[in-house]
């Protein structure tokens, strides 16, 4: 199955959240590879927690995915402003 189909399935299983990292094969039989995949997953999770406190790791099938809340996007005249959850962070061109 293609990754784009998996992303759609992960997002459908977690409404209101968007998949930002994955898939991570955390359940491999080879322990060294499984540990490496787990470490990559946790690093991605920590990076996303800085941007959105509602980020979490979810299992979809045998793979782990990092999901977070969809950012709210607001379009105004001559500028593009993005708001991310409740952090109060505002990015865009100031007037």
Protein model, in words:
The chain is α+β, with helices and mostly antiparallel strands and 95 residues long. It has one domain. It is 34% helix and 34% strand. The protein contains two helices and six strands. The strands form two sheets. Strands 1-3-2 form a three-stranded antiparallel β-sheet, with helices on both faces. The chain has a three-stranded antiparallel β-sheet with strand order 4-5-6, with no helix packed on it. Strand 5 and strand 6 form a beta hairpin. The chain is flat and about 35 Å long. The termini are far apart.
Number of DSSP-assigned strands = 6
Sheet-strand content, in percent, reads 25-35%
Q: Enumerate the strands of the largest sheet in spatial order, edge to edge or round the barrel.
A: 1-3-2
Q: What's the rounded overall pLDDT mean?
A: 78
Largest sheet: 3 strands, antiparallel
Alpha-beta classification:
alpha+beta
Query: Could you spell the SSE succession in H and E letters?
Result: HEHEEEEE
* Cα-atom radius of gyration: 16 Å
List keywords for this structure.
95 residues, alpha+beta, 3-stranded antiparallel beta sheet, 6 strands, 34% helix, 34% strand, flat
């Amino acid at each position: 199955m293609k990754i784009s189909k998996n992303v759609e399935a992960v997002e459908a299983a977690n409404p209101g959240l968007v998949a930002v990292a994955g898939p991570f094969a955390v359940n491999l039989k080879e322990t060294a590879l499984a540990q490496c995949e787990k470490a990559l997953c946790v690093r991605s999770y920590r990076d996303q927690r800085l941007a959105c406190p509602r980020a979490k790791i979810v299992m979809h099938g045998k793979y782990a995915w990092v999901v977070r809340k969809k950012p709210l996007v607001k379009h105004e005249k001559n500028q593009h402003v993005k708001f991310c959850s409740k952090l109060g962070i505002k990015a865009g061109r100031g007037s």
